[in-house]
User: Fold these one by one.
Assistant:
Number 1:
Amino acid sequence: MRTVLIVEDEWAIADWLEVLLSENAFNVLVAGNGREALDILHRETPDLVLTDFMMPFVDGAGLITAMAQNDKHRDIPVVVMTSLLEHVVKERAGKFRAYLRKPFREADLMKVIGEIFPG
Amino acid sequence: MTSDSDRFSTGVPGLDTILGGGVFDGGIYIIQGAPGAGKTILGNQICFAQAAQGRNALYITLLAESHARMIGHMRRLTFFDEAAIPDRMSYVGAFKTLEDDGLRGLLDVVRREVRTRNASILVLDGLITVHEKARSELELKKFIHELQTQAAFSNCTMFLLTSAFDAEAYPPEHTMVDGLIELQTSLHGRRAERSLQVHKLRGSWFMGGKHSYRITESGHAIYPRVEALLETPSVWDSADGPMVSVGIAGVDKMLGGGVDTHSVTVVLGPSGSGKTTAGLQFLTGGPADEPAMHFGFHENPRALAIKARTLKLSMDERGDKISLLWRPQTEAILDEVATELLGAIKARGVRRLVIDGIEGFSKLTDEKTRIGSFLSALCNELRALGVTTLATAETDHAGITPGQPLKGVNQTGLSAVAENIIALHLAALRSENHRLMTILKSRDRRTDMRMRRFEIAEGGIALDEDYRKAEVILRDISSQGPAPAPLADLKLAGE
């Protein structure tokens, strides 16, 4: 079973994603912001990180940068989900695998995940 | 009193005026109102206004709509600036922190985020959730106190949005914050009217009472109550200058040469008596290069232009020196209309104004007791702006009756606003209606107050120079006796 780390400061969105991904046979970890996500990454190695961009303490850009600096986390694919335009995220964040513009639908998310984990 | 250099504009039209000059740096303010009152829009509008000035704004939500939905809604508003996000305007959710770590955790988020983002504006959306999470009144007070300290030491102005309000309860946070702004919606018949009230503002005078506001595609537009805003006119009226023609030669003569500059003249009369015509003559009766404006609730600009052409009045020839402002009475707000009118007058440098149907203002509010002081403030401001005004007002058709030539003409309250009052009458003599005019009032002026008969023809109102024609009509009305017996042999067309 693959593990997805959800990093989201809006609890309702985090809850929705947690339920959705659990129903789709993923093991789900949830962090309320980038700082909590980095704490989790110290002890867990998820297969995918789904992260919001504007968050307290450590934002999406900070999380991506910190992951890129760590050999253990560098290759974990990151999907940024945000209301910001894609070019705004690209200008501020390092490498990420995919971008999801909020609000998105379940099918949009599953399509992106399907592309990252084909088959 | 704190220095004005410590204040900044909220960027919300009308709000700074009500706040006596904006909000204070490092102050903490509560904005409260029922769901749908527009708190979120107001909070965002203030943030984006600051972001536009190069300051950093932070919007923290608790149990509010999701950021994606909020941003989606804000995108439709003209103040929204996509380019400001996330550097100058950022959204952060903190409900989970509040839920997990309590008020202390939320304070930590606020402190860190304000510092990290160098925010000078913070909106905390959902104070009611903090209220509910607080284990005691003391804990809530401590939370507000610590926020105040953070606001002061970080020079970050904070706005706390909440839907909770009980005017009788005096929640503890109300006593602690620097300002308390309430957004309300009240029903007048089937019409809903929004109003804003500042209950408290530390360190400054503010305009008390309720002020109407509207939420448009530009966000909040707040209209300070005209009689409060113009309690004293904005500038001093010099009130000197040549007399002003009313555009009707006979009336100028009766008035001893015209009306005083910067004065207000009211023309009363029933429907069809010639008020709008008198207004058009006044409008076109000044120097060709003098900016003039017609403001009306009833006839639209096209109808007025046709009427002026029919009467051969030189409105078209004056081009943009004459402007026509039409405001249907549908869903307009009294103070909004007055603000719009005064703004247009200032923008165009208007010196000659016609208000066609001054009673229309009273139809824009259910608070009829306001109208006297509203009109007084408006007219004082018009004088101060150097505008000479002619306003028409509709009366009923009681008209001329024997021994009581002015019966049916309601002058209540007009003396307070008008230097001159001219009455138009429709006098029925047998089957014919005659138009009569009289000057009821002309302040501090020797006036010919004898009634005149007049006609409306090419060129507008043409007044009899001789008052005796009017006397003949009045005499014949007095002696015409009761209506004739039914005319048994009268056949109407088609019978």
Note: The two ends of chain B are 83 Å apart (CA to CA).
Number 2:
Amino acid sequence: METTSKSAKFYLALVFIVLYTPIIYLIFYSFNSGGSMNSFESFTWEHYAAVFSDTRLIMILLNTVIVALLSALIATIIGVFGSIGIVFMRNKSLRRSILSLNNVLIVSPDVVIGASFLILFTAIGVKLGFASVLISHIAFSIPIVVLMVLPKLQEMNSTLIDAAADLGATKRDILTRVIIPFIKPGIFAGFFMALTYSLDDFAVTFFVTGNGFSTLSVEIYSMARTGITLTINALSGIVFIVTLLLVVGYYFVSQRGKNPVGMGVRK
Amino acid sequence: MKEITRAAIAIVVVCIILFGVNNYLNQSSGNAGNDTLTIYNWGEYIDPDLITQFEEESGYRVVYETFDSNEAMMTKIEQGGTSYDIAVPSEYAIEKMKENDLLLEIDHSKIPNMSNIDPYFLDLAFDPKNKYSIPYFWGTVGIVFNPALLDGQSFESWDALWDPSLEGEVLLVDGAREIIGMGLNSLGYSLNSTDEKELLEATAKLKELTPNVKAIIGDEVTQLMINEEASVAVTFSGQAADMMWENEGLDYAVPEEGSNLWFDNMVIPKTAANVEGAHEFINFMLDAEVAAQNADYVGYSTPNTAAVALMDEEVTSDERFYPPEESRENLEVYKNLGLEMLGKYNELFLEFKMSSN
Amino acid sequence: METKTTKTFYLIPYYVWIALFVIAPIALIAYYSFFDLHGNFTLENYLNFFSSVYLKLTLSSFWYAFLITFFTLVIAYPTAYLLTKTKHKQLWLLLIIIPSWINLLLKTYAFIGIFGLYGPVNAFLNVFGIGEKQILFTDFSFVFVAVYIFIPFMILPIFNSLDKLNPSLIDASRDLGASSWTTFSKVILPLTINGVKAGIQAVFIPSLSLFMITRLIAGNKVITLGTAIEQQFLVTQNWGMGSTIAVFLIIFMVIIMIITGQRDKGATSNGNNK
């Protein structure tokens, strides 16, 4: 590998330390026998025990994960096709207007999005709950997917497509064998950022949920008035560790038996 | 392409599995009763054991949903889409909900435990004869302070906050009614004032407070005061109680010029699907033992006299949180001033906030 | 041409989304913006916006969004570049994203603790004899936490552009005697400009409407247009005024899109799909 210099390593290490400090801080206090995130009293597992005895909380966590994964997946599919459509648009001003429309939901404050979606759903008659939350999450995640996929599409050389077409590839082949493999990093980026959007959202979910359906964010925000319990810290700690293990585990399993470059290369 | 398809399929499979687990949990935790009762409340604002107890006694399955502000809750109820059977708004919100015809009348004959409530908290201006609402918790707005970080100041008067020695030490609650109201109170005016001159005077006085203001924040104030990040905070008594529970060095005072008296009451929104169950629940929550247990858990002041009698003397004799009737005289309940006036208050508050930068 | 119809078929969900979840809400917002508290038609909201308070808010929103975007870029670009040089770069990239999956409010509370007078940062400063500093409720802490939130959104697109960069181009540039700076500004940066633009859009645009951390971390000493809209919708219940501000926010966003938009020649060649 290229020599990653000492200062480069130091810089990266610093970035990672800053990114993980708040999370370590949260997990540290999840072992605090004192009831809150200050003055560590003594070590305890009680908050973890509380997580497992609280089925309502676990169900909310599962809901959150389901909504996040499904909405990110569907938003990615819609967003990828959308951005391919945008890039191949010939009319420049039309392309520009669609791109601007695409970003409206990113600039709009959550409260506005939430309130207008709520009006929309009640007008159409969608029952508030899982479906309305899922649809909203898909809706506000699409623009970030498009934003992440577009640069890859723009970098794609049109000669590549022309060459494939000259070789007799159908449009479908061009899509699945040329375009999609090329923009794959953008697709993954879009998917992961959509996950982030979904997991973080409070305001939109709050407005469009109902009939007992809730997500972790809604739960956490509404606890703020009386104080967020350390059970939530413990839950976040568990989620964090499990995610970390899954990601690292998956990465090394997928590395094995594949070429060393992994995700970057199409097989 | 293959890899992407595989990833997509994996996600779908994981979701299906999680869905299954969720369903299983749902069935194993959901009790026999098919009838549900949906409660809409602040987070952590009820002892969860009481919900279980109510489910066992009544046979209803309770769905518990949470909100983080009165306004957001009202928007949801107004738009419909969910049938909330019980909600717990603050008093000014109740007035608005009444105006917008969002509440059902409560049938007092189904709530025999209402006799447990201190008559002082009944039949108030925001809901005459308690036609629409039953008191849940109550409290005041006041000043939490940390004597160890101060040199002997006391906070019998709002003016104490303006003391130059408190530079950069004061935390304020992020609420237009609370802060403009504080300005009005400190000048001896009513916190429900709609007099332009009084309001401007109050804003001008507040602007002089800016050197002392450390931050204008919401619920985070609890954590900050416990951590001794600041020595003084203007906040609600409920949160003050939370802070003092964690940090015994803190103290709470309600200035003598007057302050706000607030209520969170149980109501039955118009969208309710289980009106019968809602009455049962309200009656259950008013039971002396239940209310005492709930007040112990939440830590706010209960209006339930029968419950107070059952609670720890040390808590209920604390005049900071259970002030005797004679010292409640200067306390005022917020009146609904109408949207126009509320806009005015917020405009002045925004002006104050921008001057604190 | 039946392939033509299949192509538009794939695009249907995207257009449905635009119609239902973008155009419909915009129409709704635009409609509300013409009404006052009593439901009467008025242009007053628009006049109101041009009062000093909202212009000041607009300026300060842009200023902070600029600061946030600038620092995010300055930190993210080298990070993305160095990440592409590591072994297991895909794994490291994922590890950059994972922290963003933990609830934001919780992380913000953690920051309140970390930046607090008795928090680890001040303890650290004390060790070095600098003494306690008020960090919370300052511009510094606000920009810091905002950058923290947005950093993955900047790193990802830049990483993706850098990753495919042909190392031989850089070698060639070096061999031709170009300095590191020339190589960067003449070779690397132009080739990654699309990623950078995407990152800037993904950070700048939402920064304009940041609201939660303006209160939690900046103690309402920073007020953005997003905060003002939230107040108008929820507290004041003046949906008309809130919508008006939202309309302006959307107009600002469109202007930014036009500025950062596709002026480069690359786009034209992409636009042509023959």
Note: Chain A touches chain C through 103 residues (CB under 8 Å).
